């Protein structure tokens, strides 16, 4: 999703600008990568015997501990594009990029854990569209399920294409080889073990991502002379620019390289986009509702949030280290994709922002460690793809196939359908990746299309959970109006670029700011239409809202638990740590 | 999650980290004994040796702590 994943990551330009591959692998590196593939496949084959019922296949038996669900919740989002793209963004924009891990994630995860999870969990829904069915009826579920299913497989294909380009540029691997080997592996282990297998592998991938990428930051900081040494070098290289403060440059659009202000970051990113993504995107929510009980389900996003706050250490820091160690006074070593492609046409080889992570990997990591770093990138890609296809299989089977085509089949039939649509979803993803290879602009369109549905969906789900008066008609028409308004604003700016001054409230606003403000307005449109239509239509009775809405649902008390075992206590700890980090990097 | 007879995910992770640690430590020791003609930045830290050692320690901990048959 554009606003959550790296906004400036441009595989087509990366491919166009690459002259030769960046890294060479030794025999040990290849052995590490091959061992990884055998491990994830082995886990899939091992778990097949434990995946017999629909509850096993689609919800991992609802038996996950808080730790497993929490790490999987985070890993499903921590794709390789995230690693490379945000490292590139940090090189380009400085520490501002870290907002997508802090204000763009932590408040939403805490909100999910404390406010929304009880309703998802107590309603025993299989999915987010399933919750909409219980709260608003079939039309809202159909709209949400079809848009989510379609966009999930398309996004999976786009990510697959981008990953293949990365492996081509970094290692010189054939694009088609990368696409087929990675997707067949994911298809096999998800088809065999369903969500159970996806979650197990995501935890493994999470550990590998950290161990593969962490060393770059550690050795980089040693070379730079610690944090203070790195900051001093960046300021010496670019005295007129501020790359190392997260909030002090957000007073106006002109003061920072991202062309955004604090309103866009706090309200657009923090209050709408990230809330929409982390609380209603079924790709991540599915991991949490697979937890073994309500307390584990509430703790899982908090564990995810604690690690999410630390992700900038392996993603943003390498970008900042690039600014300190690769650049010279007044001169960037890495350039934008278009500039690199242009230089290559004149015979000059330049590297792009998005290559900063592999370049730092090559700078510090020798045989073995290089293989571990590349395995981290591949693991990131596969965890994201497995997340997409397992969520797609659930929504397709329960919210589209069972709801619209075959209501009363056996559980075994739905498990079989889940397995077949996992394979089908991967094939559609491969088709999308091939399409993107020949029509690069499709990547931008699909990413933007995905973002159209997230912000309004948050408004619809939130009003449904917190306001008893919201009606079925209000929920459906609000969701539809919010989505259409997002598409309308996007089309307006596409056809009349100067319209960005009305959407983002400033002619100096850049595309990132436009995304944030578009999300803000579409969510507000959704809320206003939902409220107005609800007030004009007949609400459900309180008896019909039990387990679905605040005020009609008895939330189990945690009063008998010691303080340190209560989710609310850990929500406070995570929130305090978040505030402290913002002050430290102000 | 705990089902009768099912191996813990942490056991799988432990075994893989152990294998990775042995490979990386081996490569690090080889580089220490036979330095390449064009060493990496900060090659004198011998990151492969201590990172490989760390992976072995983590791998041993998880594979023993969550080994089959042990009550977690």
Q: Largest contact between protein chains?
A: A-B, 36 and 31 residues
**Low-pLDDT segments, ≥5 res of chain A:** 1-6
Mean pLDDT value of chain A: 87
Number of domains of chain A: 1
Mean pLDDT of chain B: 89
Spans of chain B with pLDDT under 50 lasting ≥5 residues? Answer: none
Q: Helices and strands of chain B, in N-to-C order?
A: HH
Instruction: Output the radius of gyration of chain A.
Output: 23 Å
Q: What is the N-to-C succession of helices and strands of chain A?
A: HHHHHHHHHHHHHHEHEHHHHHHHH
Shape of chain A: globular
Query: C-alpha Rg of chain B, in Å?
Result: 16 Å
Number of strands of chain A: 2
Q: With helices defined by DSSP (H or I, 4 residues minimum), what is the helix count of chain A?
A: 23
Instruction: Return the structural class of chain B.
Output: mainly alpha
Supply the CATH superfamily name of chain A: Sodium/glucose cotransporter
Distance, first to last CA of chain B: 11 Å
State the gist of this model.
In chain A, 71% of the residues lie in helices and 1% in strands. With 586 residues, chain A is an all-alpha fold. Chain B has one domain.
Which descriptors apply to this entry?
heterodimer, A: mainly alpha, two-stranded parallel ribbon, 2 strands, 71% helix, 1% strand, B: 72 residues, mainly alpha
Descriptive notes:
The complex is a heterodimer of chains A (586) and B (72). By secondary structure, chain A is mostly helical. Chain A has one domain (11-584): Sodium/glucose cotransporter (Up-down Bundle), CATH 1.20.1730. Helices cover 71% and strands 1% of the residues of chain A. Chain A contains 23 helices and two strands. Chain A has helices at residues 11-17, 27-47, 54-59, 66-75, 80-93, 106-122, 128-136, 138-171, 175-224, 226-237, 262-280, 282-289, 294-310, 312-325, 337-345, 356-364, 369-405, 411-438, 442-466, 472-495, 500-503, 511-536, 567-584, and strands at 334-335, 351-352. The radius of gyration of chain A is 23 Å and the shape is globular. Chain B has 72 residues and is mainly alpha-helical. Chain B has one domain (9-65). In chain B, 61% of the residues lie in helices and 0% in strands. The interface between A and B is medium-sized, with 36 and 31 residues.
């Amino acid at each position: 999703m554009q606003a959550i994943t790296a906004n400036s990551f441009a595989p087509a330009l990366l491919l166009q600008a690459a002259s030769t591959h960046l890294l060479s692998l030794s025999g040990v590196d290849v052995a590490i990568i091959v061992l990884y593939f055998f491990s994830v496949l082995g886990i899939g084959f091992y778990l097949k015997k434990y995946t017999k019922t629909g509850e096993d296949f689609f919800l991992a038996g609802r038996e996950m501990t808080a730790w497993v669900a929490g790490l999987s919740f985070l890993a499903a989002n921590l794709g390789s594009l995230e690693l490379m793209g945000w490292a590139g963004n940090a090189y380009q924009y400085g520490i501002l990029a870290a907002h997508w891990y802090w204000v763009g994630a932590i408040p939403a995860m805490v909100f999910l854990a404390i406010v929304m999870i009880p309703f998802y969990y107590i309603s025993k829904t299989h999915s987010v569209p399933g919750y909409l069915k219980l709260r608003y009826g079939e039309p809202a579920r159909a709209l949400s399920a079809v848009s989510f299913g379609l966009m999930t497989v398309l996004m999976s294909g786009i990510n697959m294409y981008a990953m293949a380009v990365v492996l081509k540029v970094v290692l010189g691997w054939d694009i088609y080889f990368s696409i087929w080997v990675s997707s067949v592996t994911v298809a096999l282990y998800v088809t065999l073990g369903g969500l159970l297998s996806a979650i197990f592998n995501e935890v493994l991938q999470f550990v590998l991502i950290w161990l593969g990428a962490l060393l770059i930051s550690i050795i980089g900081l040693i070379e730079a002379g610690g944090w203070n040494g790195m900051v001093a070098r960046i300021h010496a290289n670019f005295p007129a620019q501020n790359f190392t403060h997260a909030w002090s440059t957000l007073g106006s659009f002109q003061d920072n390289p991202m062309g955004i202000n604090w309103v866009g970051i706090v309200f657009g990113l923090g209050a709408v986009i990230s809330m929409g993504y982390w609380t209603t995107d079924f790709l991540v929510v599915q991991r949490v509702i697979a937890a073994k009980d309500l307390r584990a389900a509430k703790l899982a996003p908090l564990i995810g949030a604690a690690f999410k706050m630390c992700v900038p250490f392996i993603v943003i820091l390498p970008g900042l280290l690039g600014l300190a160690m690769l650049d010279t006074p007044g001169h960037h070593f890495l350039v934008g994709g278009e500039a690199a492609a242009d230089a290559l046409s004149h015979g000059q080889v330049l590297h792009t922002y998005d290559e900063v992570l592999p370049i730092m990997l090559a700078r510090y990591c020798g045989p073995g460690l290089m293989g571990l770093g590349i395995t981290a990138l591949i693991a990131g890609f596969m965890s994201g793809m497995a997340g997409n296809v397992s969520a797609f299989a659930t929504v397709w089977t329960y919210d589209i196939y069972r709801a619209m085509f075959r209501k009363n089949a056996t559980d075994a039939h739905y498990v079989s359908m889940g397995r077949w649509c996992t394979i089908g979803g991967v094939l559609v993803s491969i088709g999308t990746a091939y399409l993107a290879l020949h029509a690069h602009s499709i990547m931008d369109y699909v990413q933007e299309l995905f973002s159209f549905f997230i912000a309004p969906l948050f408004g619809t789900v939130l009003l449904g959970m917190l306001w008893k008066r919201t009606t079925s008609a209000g929920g459906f028409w609000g969701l539809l109006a919010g989505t259409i308004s997002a598409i309308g604003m996007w089309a307006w700016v596409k056809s009349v670029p100067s319209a960005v001054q009305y959407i983002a409230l400033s002619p100096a606003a850049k595309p990132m700011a436009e995304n944030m403000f578009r999300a803000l307005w579409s969510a507000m449109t959704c809320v206003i239409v939902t409220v107005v239509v609800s007030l004009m239509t007949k609400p459900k009775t309180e008896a019909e809202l039990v387990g679905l809405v605040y005020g009609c649902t008895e939330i189990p008390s945690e009063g008998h638990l010691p303080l340190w075992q209560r989710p609310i206590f850990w929500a406070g700890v995570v929130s305090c740590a978040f505030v402290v980090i913002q002050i430290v990097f102000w | 999650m705990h089902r009768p007879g099912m191996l813990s995910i942490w056991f799988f992770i432990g075994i893989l980290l152990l294998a990775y640690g042995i490979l990386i430590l081996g490569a690090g020791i080889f580089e220490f004994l036979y330095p390449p003609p064009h060493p990496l930045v900060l090659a004198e830290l011998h990151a492969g040796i201590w990172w490989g050692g760390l992976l072995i320690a983590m791998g041993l901990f998880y594979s023993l702590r969550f080994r089959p048959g042990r009550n977690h």
